[in-house]
Design brief:
0% of the residues lie in helices and 45% in strands. With 88 residues, the protein is an all-beta fold.
Amino acid sequence: MNGSDALRLITLDDEDISAPLEADSRLHIELLPGQHRVGVANGPNDPVVPVAFAAEPGKVYRVTFVGPAPHVFEVDRASDTPGRDVTP
């Protein structure tokens, strides 16, 4: 997650992990492979919306809103370019 994005990560596997980020920062969270559920908000006053995905070893992911719904995309580690949508 990039600090300059409006999207905020609020929960991870039902644990509150919300924290303010500076606009020039980036948040990386390492997860074990398997099913995970994140709660995200698309802005400071927006409701928290859950989205689930299956994390794979060695992969990088980013949550992005596509219309009103959050989706989880695999991201190329070198270029930071979103790739396949892994949202079930």
